[in-house]
Amino acid sequence: MKRRFRTTYLFAALTALCLLGGGIWALSGSSPVSRYAAAPETAKSPASPRQEQAGKPAMPVPPAASSAPALSRRVAEYHISVQLDPGTSTLTAAETVTWTHPGKNPVSDLYFHLYPNAFASDSTTFMKESGGKLRSDSMPQDGFGSITLTDVRTTDGVSLMHRMQYVQPDDGNPDDKTLIKIHLPQPVNGGESVTVKLRYEVRLPKIFARMGESGDFIMAGQWFPKLSVYEPAEARGRGEEGWNLHQYHGTSEFYSDFGIYSVAISVPANYTVGATGFPVKSPRIAGGRKIYQFYADDVHDFAWAASPDFVYAEKAYSSANVPGVRIKLYLDPLHKNLAERYFQAAEAALNAFSKWYGPYPYTTLSIVVPPKAGNGAGGMEYPTLITAFGAESGSADTSLERTVIHEIGHQFFYGMVASNEFEEAWLDESFTSYAEDRLMQKEYGIAPNLPLQANLVTKPMPLTLDTWKYGNANVYTQNVYIRGKLVLKDIEQQVGAKAMDTIMSSYARKYRFHHPGTADFQKIVEKVTKKSWQDYFDRYVYGGGAPDFTVEDITVSKSKKGGYESLTTVANKGSLYTGVSIKFTFANGSTLHKIWDGEGGKASFRLSSAAPLVSAEVDPGHEVLLENKHINNFRKAALPAAAVSRWTLSLTNAIETVLGIFVW
């Protein structure tokens, strides 16, 4: 998702607030010309293939090659013709895909993701793991969908239908058909290419998880047979080259290679289509249908949305950091008066993220606003196209801007850096959430309540787990969205904002279009800071570490020389964390701060004071963001009876109240 986890965590936050005794949770923290029209403006691009007027889509013909320099390796090239039949909720398509072997060893099989089959029955891996739910949306009754390959053959016309086999490398579930192996007539050597022609039919599910149909609204995300990623030996620390193969899981998102997409989309004449890339010419009407032709290169996916109800708006935007991009809005009618807010959020995101993480390299950015009933398709990102949350009313709070900013942030980390979201989802979700918080505070003055968010991480686990190994969506979200972001913020606190800016910028710019792994990010951190971070990453990234500070005991006695003596014992029952502050508060209102190096797991502090010690607190400023159990950080002293007064009790109660607001 790059989809936000609003409902689940709003409820969790409210519950936490009840337990904590109060507080407010915030999940964060040129002269463009506007134009409104019924269809997108044409953009210059390569010549488009001929599309048949009606009936079964013809095999697509590749357009002339683009003269633009390649930004990526372009391992895959897709040419697709697809026809939507709203009456039967089906897509009928023909696809020609060419794969160029990026490794060295001969390859005898191609693997394709068939993501729509995740919705084929209650027995698929996705449905079993998710329980038919994603975020706050559930599968409608009889909302199943699927994809069926009707023909697969070589360019020579040799059928490969008898050479296909569904595979389930993650769980062996025979009812899961989201990954298929096609055995080739002859091996493909390193550097060589192979082309396969496919025909297929997609029965669209009812929208509840990213793709499908809701009334007249269509969201075609992860809708076509898509090649798996073949990783060379050097990729993400692999020891040997090979296919990266995973099924579609309840919490997993996607991973695919960069390439070229040329897609013809045929819809009823009254429909408007928004898609990845840009239209190579104006849509044409033939036989009562409207045919669009889109083109995109240096992207690793292609998505589109269609509806007869879209209110279309667009703006040309440029800045010092954005050479020029056409922002396109496909609004649900309920949000037609909110166009400027969408534009403003998009412009802020494009400008800031291009400055921080490298220029946005594409000429278009499309924003699709689904209807309320299609909210399951909302809050999601695809290359050059994002979806906002479903329109529920004609007004909206700043979650409108937050969602747009978050999903545009994904254009940089999911879209260009393109991490493996099956295995290292934090490299996308955590990094995007970090960027989102920063921009929401800069642009809208909304700061995140990070200590309270840390309290929501009830089960810290390694950030590099395969997504389905978190056990459920709740634990996945705690770690991949919240805890991973807190790790980045914790690194920032240690190295300073300027160095962290350099780390994030260096990482995003160096690895755009390269599929990096966590170890690559660690190398950047170490290069910028000029020191090893291995122990830290072992504890908090590769491991599920969390410090757990506690004030174990306080004793106070009168001193023979007058005044008071106190002995305070503190401990860390969790992972090592150095340089934590301890605050001592005395009955006369004075305070004393000490720094504990954290070594040894336990320490005692003996103090002499004019007034008795009232309390001690570890990390009073809540700066250790990776601690998720703050309830034992504070302790009242066991005061001698003679020292207890109504005033000191009132002070102690006041301290408890303040701490309750922010911690408990």
From TrEMBL:
Cofactors that this protein relies on: Zn(2+)
Stretch forming the signal peptide: none
MF (Gene Ontology): aminopeptidase activity; metallopeptidase activity; zinc ion binding
Domain Peptidase M1 membrane alanine aminopeptidase: 346-540
Active site, UniProt feature: E407, Y481
InterPro entries: M1_LTA4H, Peptidase_M1_dom, Peptidase_M4/M1_CTD_sf
Keywords, sorted A to Z: Aminopeptidase, Hydrolase, Metal-binding, Protease, Zinc
Free-text cofactor note: Binds 1 zinc ion per subunit.
Binding site for Zn(2+): H406, H410, E429
Organism domain of life: Bacteria
Entry protein name: Peptidase m1 membrane alanine aminopeptidase
PANTHER family: LEUKOTRIENE A-4 HYDROLASE (PTHR45726)
Region (Disordered): 40-67
